[in-house]
Amino acid sequence: MKSAAGIGRALGIFDEVADLPEASRHSRLDELCAGDAALRARIEAMLTADARSDDPFEGNAAVRWSDALHVAAGGDALVGSTIGVWKIVAIAGRGGMGIVYEVQRADGAYTQRAALKLIHAAAQSPLSYERFLRERQILAQLRHPNIATLLDGGLTTAGDPWFVMEYVDGVPIDVWCDERRLGVRARVELFVQVLDAVSHAHRNLLVHRDLKPSNLLVDATGRIKLLDFGIAKQLQEHDATVLDDRAVTFGYASPEQLNDEPITTATDIWQLGIVLHLLLSGSHPFRIARDTPLAKQIQQLEEQPQSLIDAAAHATSGQAAARGTDDPAVLAKALRSGLAEIVAACLRRDPVARYASVDALAADLQYWLQDRPVVAKRAGPGERAALWLRRNRVLAASLAAVATALVVGTAISLWQAREAQRESARTRESLQFLADTLTAAAPEQALNREVSVRQLLDSARRQLDQRSSVDAQVRQPVQRMLGRLYFSVGDPQLATQLLEAGMRGIEPDNRAAALALADDLVVYSDALANLERNADSLAASERSAALRQKFAPDDPEQQLRALAHQTLGHVQKYGWETCRQRAERALAIAKVMANPPLDVVLRLYSDLGSVANFTNDRNRLLQVSEEGLAFAESHAVPPQSPLLAALLRNRIEGLLLLDRPAEAEAQARETIAMTEKSGGLAATRLSVLYNVLAKALGDQGRFRESLAALMHTNELLLTDGSGPRNLAAVRVNLATTYAQIGDYAQSLRLMEQSIATLDQANVAAADTFRLHYEEGYARVLLANGRTAQARKRLDATLELVRKTLGVHSEDYAQLLVDEAEAALQDGDAARGQRLVAEARERAIERGMTPASRQSAQLLHYDSAFAQLRGDLLTAEARQREALQSLQSSGNPFEITVASSKLAGILIERGEYAEARELLDRSLPVLRQTVLPQQRDLKAAEALTLKLR
């Protein structure tokens, strides 16, 4: 095994030759290395690194850039020149394998600032050249918000390879944290972003191998960007954990990197441990400083790392102050609660003994952030109890609320029992039931990991099931209370079962009991709606309204609650317009009340937004959502409250309908992060947020990221036991996205599964929601070239939409466009043009503007049908108009598709120069975004053959 002995030999030779003159050094190396090429290469790398005067933490045993390289590159001579479609405006930096320039897009297609990395032939070695190309390929396959995105690439006229990636205007993570004097918790929260990025690379079978602060930049928004995959490498296919290539930054080198042992994902975990140690304590765990000689670095890396607590205790006052305290002892104390063990687990010399994955490390940090015991440390009973109390301040209140609910829910029966006979069996049984249930909250019983409200509820339900003799007057109020709580934690199945049992046979004869039952019926109705039992949901809602009308006819709040509550069952029976009018009427009543119930008002705003969303009423959707959020803010509703979830989702949908996907994405990510942290949403409702995030990404042409969000949505729905319409919806979206990237076979399989799911659930063809899925099915059929099948579905769906939603609906206009696509595939220009004309008329009725994406889509079909007729002048003019519309409302992918289609028209007209320019700009984006078989990319590739 190659270990410290190998290092010792290398260090011995290094010490002997380091001070020799250059002329003598080479001959002495020949003698001492005795033909051992690997040993010679290691020592020469050490000599090269030792000769430089910059920061050892920025070290790299690969080729390093020097002043000579700057001269060879012509200094700033390239500034002002153009490479591809990119104009070089400044030198941004130099790295181990190339110069990085700040560039701006120069073709006028759209404005974009980026970073161009270039390796000059004069400085290339076979290894550096291979690594440069490898980095470009690696970036091409990684799509993650915390990883710098590849935008373009190619060769210069001199044959030098280059690539362009997003410009990250940021600073190293340690500097960013120190400048802002971030405390320990804030640093850990930021570091979790790093782990998310590295985990994404590992899932793509890539090990970074050079994780250090200078490769972890933080931008102005506080987002981490992982850079420099220059020495990263693909995991070997036969072993998805092991690498064989060698490259190292010594200050962060793992034992296996130094000892020529197999490199695995554990190497990244070692380096992450060093970075985390630096962030938290301010010092390197192996006491390596800027002025530490290389030989000393390697020797110290063979020693045991300094513990995080010891490093913090010996921190300078400046290091402590940068972490929010002036006292190193206070800093050391803050790191005792599991963080020291987490870092130590990362820095175990045996790779197998480290965390099994980056995800496992991330999970332990999340446990620490949530004041839970970490896996890396086996906490004693006292410490576990302290952690439980710390993290359960809110839970303690929740337990108190549950206990209160248990008492209140059984108050009437307990009072009656006490009045009849204080020591009766019923009273003793009720109190014993309450005591046994709450025992689940005791640390010695349930502190294995955490006590949650869900665990308490499960314990109460089991206790109730085991006690068959519990009197109905005790059992049923408890069942109803548990049902409401199960619905609040996101389990509509159990909520429905418990509420059904708790309400069976109940016929209230007084106001208090009737209104309590009415409130339970509302929760029951909502749970049924989640399970898509729409008829039952409607019946429960109407019974609730009838109870309020009978027992509280003169109570404005109760009558408002009766009018305001609507579910999918109401939509199925009465239609969207009737539901909209009813909600508007209820909201008008609420606005004149002195103290309207907040939950009712916010639900009304949400319902009105849902109606506007389904009917594609762009302006109303955004307006009503923002009105609702303003109302919530004015009434001090916490931003993370589940009451706001639907309003936030509707606002995101409104931004999407108004062609503002970047804003929609930012809102979606913020809402998801907030709700996941608070745990305030059930899986079905959280899946809706991921679904709108996927839409926002797709509308920006980021199909692969959209696909990942949709897959997560699907997982959430499967976990939650969602109904057929919800499952069908996300699979339709998945199918559509697969079609967009060019995996047509997979898109068709998913779409057929979706339709089969609806058929098995007996969802009628005229179902309000199924109409949307039928539209999606037709589009996927068109994408797969199954024109006849698609046209048959389109004709049937168009007729149903005409009858149900009307000819003025957006669905009707979009179906006309789909029919136009079928006509284009059939080569029927006359029919297609008529369809486009009618679609434009309907869209203008609904407020379509010339600069919208919808307008660009219609212009594209105008162009396509003109080209089909042989009218190339009109085809060119319409396609240029479409391209102009997309400059303000489209995404880079749509712009490149439109550009490539214009190129096709120009080639037909014999205007090859502009066509070549358009294709040169379009092809890199298309190749990066979609699969080789995607039809727009295939068409563009075919056009390039015509230009040869």
Structure explained in plain terms:
With 948 residues, the chain is mainly alpha-helical. Among the domains are: 4-51, no CATH class; 82-369, Transferase(Phosphotransferase), domain 1; 381-504, no CATH class; 805-884, Serine Threonine Protein Phosphatase 5, Tetratricopeptide repeat; 891-948, no CATH class. 64% of the residues lie in helices and 5% in strands. The chain has 45 helices and eleven strands. The protein has a six-stranded antiparallel β-sheet. A three-stranded antiparallel β-sheet has the order 7-9-10. It has a two-stranded antiparallel ribbon with strand order 8-11. Helix 19 (425-438) runs antiparallel to helix 21, helix 23 (492-503) runs antiparallel to helix 24 (511-530) and helix 24 runs antiparallel to helix 25. The longest helix has 20 residues, at 184-203. Residues 1-5, 52-75, 230-247, 378-424 and 440-451 have low confidence and may be disordered.
Oligomer: single chain
CATH class of the domain at 82-369: Mainly Alpha
SS field, number of helical segments? 45
Tell me the name of the CATH homologous superfamily of the domain at 82-369.
Answer: Transferase(Phosphotransferase) domain 1
Strand order of the largest sheet: 1-2-3-4-6-5
Stated plainly, the CATH topology of the domain at 82-369 is called Transferase(Phosphotransferase), domain 1
